[in-house]
Known about the structure:
Elements: H1 2-7, H2 11-15, H3 18-27, H4 31-50, H5 63-79, E1 87-88, H6 105-115, E2 123-124, E3 129-130, H7 135-145, E4 149-153, H8 156-168, E5 172-176, E6 182-183, E7 187-188, H9 189-196, E8 199-203, H10 211-217, E9 222-228, H11 244-253, E10 257-263, H12 281-286, E11 291-295, E12 306-310, H13 312-320, H14 323-326, H15 331-345, H16 353-359, H17 362-379, E13 384-392, E14 404-412, H18 418-426, E15 432-433, E16 435-437, E17 440-444, H19 450-466
Parallel strand pairs: 1-15, 5-8, 5-9, 9-10, 10-11
Antiparallel strand pairs: 2-3, 4-12, 6-7, 11-12, 13-14, 14-17, 16-17
Helix pairs in contact: 3-5, 4-5, 6-15, 7-15, 8-9, 17-19
Amino acid sequence: MENYLRELPPVHEIQRDCRFTKLCDKYQLTSERLTAYIRNVLGQIRAELQDGQVPALYPEHDFTSIIFINVEQKVAEWSRNKLSRVINGTGTVLHTNLGRARLSNQAAEYAAEVAKSYSTLEFNLSSGKRGSRHDIIEDLLKESAGAEAAMVVNNNAAAVFMILTALAKEREVIVSRGQLVEIGGSFRVSEIMEESGAYLKEIGTTNKTHLSDYENAINEETAMLMKVHTSNFRTIGFTKSVSTEELVRIGQKHNLLFYEDLGSGSLFDYGEDGIGEEPVVRQVIEAGADVVSFSGDKLLGGPQAGIIAGKKEIIDRLKKHQLARVLRVDKMTLAALEQTLKMYLTNREKEIPAIRDISRTAEEIRQDAEHFASVMRSEAASFRIGVEKSTSQVGGGTMPGVELPTFVATVTHDSFTEQELADRLRTCPKPIITRIMNEQVLIDFRTVTSEEIEEIINGFKAIEQEK
Length: 467
């Protein structure tokens, strides 16, 4: 290996190669940055040679060429955006791994407009003095949720943490044992409570909690009654829970706060479309809850946010807490949320992608699947295409057990296994994420727009041409 090591070119010699300048120009790199990549690759090749490994491209290429090939691969990989758009062919509407709710065009365009300009984030145009970012969407939230006051933090876990810290620190919060849920990423309500400084007081059993369990647990250290909506699982069978209305009455009787963490949070009544039994925020507030919290990027269909709504006295206390600054959201989130809420208040909810996609009928989806299959059979004939009935999920830890009737396109190819085909679609220039079932690739058109159908077809055609 000593002979190979002596053949390695020095850095200054590589820098004089015309390919060095071409790479700098192609990827808009400084010579210093490209040199750092070259040193890194040289070090790797040297280490391989010292371990007795000869580079795979040798002897077809000289070491200088091998270095440039490896450097360009690394630079190209770095140049690709880590956060990139994908086409969601899974049918899961609020797919957590794929970013949950898509924004409406109005919300996305307004967020982009605000992002590239100065804005009235904390400036009052009427007075010419400093304003508050809380004011931007509070009136819209109050109207859409039916609350006295409202504010926004960066997600619902943050909302839970803030409410417990500000309103129940070093005091007891009574929660049903059956509601101590674990949300995405292994975050548990019990652990968030512990971090907040509130003392968790579990009552009842996993499947049954009675009104008397709450009554018996109340003492002079109790600060709050808390109800957690079990939005990511269902307990069926021999069960018992205490309603919001009953908890409101207990709270009022003992002069205690009642807080309901709605989790997914819905301003739209999906039950009217026969979809699930998700509580509507307005109804919970009208029932008398002192404060509620819920997510912005799930059933609401907006950006990631934690929305807190309720009695004015409570929200004012939260706004003045130091965590209000720690957990505040930025101008783009507020812009997207503002436009999303305005769509609710102008009866355009069905234009919000999450609501539209969850509410789509199986017949609407079947038409898209049949159109896709027809075009594929004429333009990418080597693939075998079928259309079948199936079910979609809402996703995002929302509406567990709810299955949405749908139609999927099934795709197979003689030259690829179903996993190989799914992998190739996932690594297309415009990645397409699919499902695999019964040795077939499935594309569920519930989550595919009409514009994306053509992109999916082009992805298959590119795979066909490669073969």
